[in-house]
């Protein structure tokens, strides 16, 4: 076998994020390049900038139902040369939230910047968060992401932002991240998905839109759920990700694709945005019905 590395930017001229490289066999080179170029230049690409003033309230966007997220797993955390990835058992699944199907977990990975600077893929009103977690799920009747991408809603990705805080550390994540610097493949023991995300009652506000994978080949098969509340993480923990390296030895920084045009796509929101956002939990629970009425 003879493989050739092609920098992604050569294939997709609209995409300037450099870290992702494609490995294509010579024989299928041309065919794949054409297909990837077509997908990446299409009209339902991700990530996007979410303009909160323009989101459309959708009452069908009920809370995501998490199954198996509390189960502890033993798995591998891998520096795969592009990002940090954790393979997940498909016992973990999501449903509800107007997804229309059960989706089983496949893997999670992260996108970040440099030394804790801006690094998320999605932006909110033009603002980038320092890091973004993607938990990738596929419709339960498929066996792999490769199969699921042929279905326009075959993949469901949950996106969570991290925000820098200057107070206490997020203990669970410290343990998780430190191990990833020891080698390219480290066992992760007794970790549950719930330890990596926020308490479920803090995940009721989210954005929904139809988009694509943000890595080659940009397949437009993703139902995106982007949670509004960010996970707090200390600045030094966020910076630590810049110590990782790509397979060619250069610093693994800025592992995010730039925002893409919306081309008229709506972004839906699970709650009325108008009054509830910054209200204390108690007050908002009392007034939720009132807020909905005033939209
Ligand atoms: Zn991603």
Q: Could you explain the architecture of this structure?
A:
- With 295 residues, the chain is an alpha+beta fold.
- It has one domain: Alpha carbonic anhydrase (Carbonic Anhydrase II, Roll).
- Helix content is 18%, strand content 31%.
- It has 7 helices and 18 strands.
- Strands 4, 5, 6, 7, 8, 9, 12, 13, 14, 15, 16, 17 and 18 form a 13-stranded mixed β-sheet that branches. Strands 3-10-11 form a 3-stranded mixed β-sheet, with no helix packed on it.
- Strand 6 and strand 7 form a beta hairpin.
- The N terminus and C terminus are likely disordered.
- The chain binds zinc ion.
- It holds the Pfam family Carb_anhydrase.
- It is an enzyme of class 4 (lyase).
- Belongs to the alpha-carbonic anhydrase family.
- This is Carbonic anhydrase.
- It comes from Sinocyclocheilus anshuiensis.
């Amino acid at each position: 076998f003879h493989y050739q590395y092609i920098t992604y930017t050569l294939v997709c001229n609209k995409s300037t994020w450099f870290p992702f490289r494609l490995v294509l066999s010579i024989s299928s080179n041309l065919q794949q390049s054409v297909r990837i170029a077509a997908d990446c230049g299409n009209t339902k690409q991700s990530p996007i900038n979410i303009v909160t003033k323009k989101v459309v309230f959708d009452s069908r966007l009920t809370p995501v139902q998490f199954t198996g997220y509390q189960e502890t797993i033993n798995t591998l955390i891998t520096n795969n040369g592009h990002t940090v990835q954790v393979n997940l058992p498909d016992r973990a699944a999501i449903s509800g939230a107007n997804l229309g199907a059960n989706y089983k977990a496949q893997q999670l990975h992260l996108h970040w910047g440099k030394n804790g600077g801006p690094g998320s893929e999605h932006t909110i009103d033009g603002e980038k968060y320092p890091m973004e977690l993607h938990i990738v799920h596929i419709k339960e009747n498929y066996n792999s992401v490769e199969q699921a991408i042929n279905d326009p809603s075959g993949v469901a990705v949950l996106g969570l932002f991290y925000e820098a805080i200057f107070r206490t550390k997020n203990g669970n994540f410290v343990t998780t991240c430190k191990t990833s610097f020891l080698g390219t493949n480290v066992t992760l023991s007794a970790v549950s998905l719930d330890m990596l995300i926020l308490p479920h009652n803090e995940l009721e506000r989210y954005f929904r839109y139809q988009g694509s994978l943000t890595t080659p080949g940009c397949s437009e098969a993703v139902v995106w759920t982007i949670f509004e509340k960010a996970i707090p993480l200390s600045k030094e923990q966020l910076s630590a990700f810049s110590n990782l390296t790509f397979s060619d030895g250069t610093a693994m920084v800025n592992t995010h694709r730039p925002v893409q045009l919306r081309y008229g796509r709506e972004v839906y929101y699970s709650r009325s945005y108008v009054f509830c956002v910054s209200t204390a939990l108690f007050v908002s629970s009392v007034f939720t019905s009132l807020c909905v009425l005033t939209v």
